[in-house]
Specification:
alpha+beta, PmbA/TldD fold, six-stranded antiparallel sheet, 9 helices, 17 strands
């Protein structure tokens, strides 16, 4: 449900009162499920508020203020499962939602893997991780910030002739998960962003790029003028690209795109892909996938981490564990359902991973460029040419050609191709230039000997 409201930022912080109300609703719904004869049940309740503005060429394009609410009920009758949801908190609607979930469960087949997670795994230490930083931002202030970012970018150089706009976003989220094991977990978080995208050049020689900041606390946002100037710099650097001959080159994936490589790994080791046999990494736990120095750790307890959490989407206690250690895949990424399908145990990843950190082995991007000597720096990827079943990788890209350890000229209209299994083993370095705007925390990644399709 999305409706217009007059103020997305309340004058006082009522988040705990709202969480208490959601907990009360969850308890009421669980009791209704028990009364209906369900052997197990779980309820997820959420409330979100947000303010988003967009400007372009000095004019306001949109202002959106939202409030969203959702209630999801899942019941189990033995090993038959039914789910229903609503955004209506009226008593009759809540009752109907439970009735619908129960009706669905009674018409489904038994599934030996269904059911709540093991009660012994429920989280008990329900900490917060400094993720709640509401911003008393009204629409006018947000518009002025966006305009300032865009203007700073447009003023940076006469070659910036157009804009793709600037935007400011601020939001908050409250959620409660409860189940019939007696577990009740509440979470609250905020997120804030400021972005700018610019266009330089004329006609067929135009280039577009931008920059953005994404944080949990408004105190951590980059200044509007700095966002605009960085967007201008990145856009100007892309002007006058030159063709690149097809060949095999070492490739540095800059930090903001390197995390996509780790994302492809996650997709391939997730439970859903594995039990369906739709992954090139089936039966890969305990096997060498990366060089011996390479490691990835899950850090769910980082203060102000973008995905910090004491429990996963099933109430299972999260824990700090390696995903890759010594280049060896230590485990998969599983919730309780996929774990049962695979004959394994949940890894507390129902709903996803919590702050992955890829260990650095090199200095920053400049040092990596100097060390590479000659090759390609990829700063942008396009398309979805990744086959998780086979590991085949083919994506459009743009970036810069490196010669004698320095940027020589921009390149675009190229394709980077290979197989992810080979690319993982060919990683030669991970930079210390971590991009903080994602829960996948990695620096730039250097991969040796990647096929790059250019001209001829």
């Amino acid at each position: 449900m999305t409706t217009a409201i007059t103020d997305a930022s309340p004058n006082h912080d009522d988040s705990r009162e709202r969480l208490a109300r959601l907990e009360g609703i969850a308890g009421q719904l669980l009791q209704r499920c028990r009364d209906a004869g369900a052997s197990q049940a779980e309820v997820a309740c959420s409330e979100d508020r947000g303010l988003n503005v967009n400007v372009r060429m000095g004019e306001v394009e949109s202002v959106e203020s939202t409030r969203d609410r959702g209630i999801a009920v899942t019941v189990y009758f033995g090993q038959r499962k039914g789910s229903a949801s609503t955004a209506d908190l009226r008593e009759e609607s809540l009752a109907a939602t439970v009735e619908q979930a129960c009706a669905i469960a009674r018409h489904t087949e038994d599934d030996a893997a269904s059911g709540l997670a093991d009660p012994a795994l429920m989280a008990r230490d329900l900490r917060e991780f400094d993720a709640w930083h509401p911003w008393a931002l009204d629409a006018q202030d947000a518009v002025e910030l966006a305009l300032a970012a865009e203007q700073a970018g447009r003023d940076a150089d006469a070659r910036i002739g157009n804009s793709d706009g600037a935007g400011v976003g601020s939001g908050s989220s409250l959620s409660v998960y409860a189940n019939s094991h007696g577990f009740v977990g509440a979470e609250r978080s905020t997120h804030h962003s400021l972005s700018c995208a610019l266009i330089a050049g004329r006609g067929e020689d135009m280039q577009r790029d931008g920059w953005y900041s994404y944080v949990l606390s408004p105190d951590d946002l980059e200044p509007a003028a700095a966002i605009g100037r960085k967007a201008a710099q990145r856009t100007l650097e892309r002007l006058d690209p030159r063709p690149l001959a097809t060949g095999r080159y070492p490739v540095i994936f800059s930090a903001e795109v390197a995390r996509s490589l780790i994302g492809h790994l996650l997709g391939a080791v997730s439970g859903g892909a594995l039990y369906r046999g739709a992954s090139f990494l089936v039966d890969s736990a305990g096997k060498q996938l990366f060089p011996a120095w390479f490691s990835i750790h899950e850090r769910p307890f980082l203060q102000r981490g973008l995905r910090s959490a004491a429990f996963d989407a099933e109430g299972v206690a999260t824990r700090e564990t390696p995903l890759v250690e010594g280049g060896v895949l230590q485990r998969y990424v599983l919730g309780s359902y996929s774990a049962r399908r695979l004959g394994l145990e949940t890894t507390a990843n129902a709903g996803g991973v919590h702050n992955l950190e890829v260990a650095a082995s090199a200095g920053g991007l400049d040092e990596m460029v100097r060390g590479m000597g000659r090759g390609l720096l990829v700063t942008s990827l396009m398309g979805q040419g990744v086959n998780t079943v086979t590991g085949d990788y083919s994506r459009g890209a743009s970036g810069f050609w490196i010669e004698n350890g320095a940027i020589a000229h921009p390149v675009d209209g190229i394709t980077v191709a290979g197989n992810l299994r080979d690319m993982f083993m060919a990683i030669e370095a991970v930079g210390s230039d971590v991009d903080p705007r994602s829960h996948i925390r990695t620096g730039s990644i250097l991969v040796g000997g990647v096929t790059v399709a250019g001209l001829g």
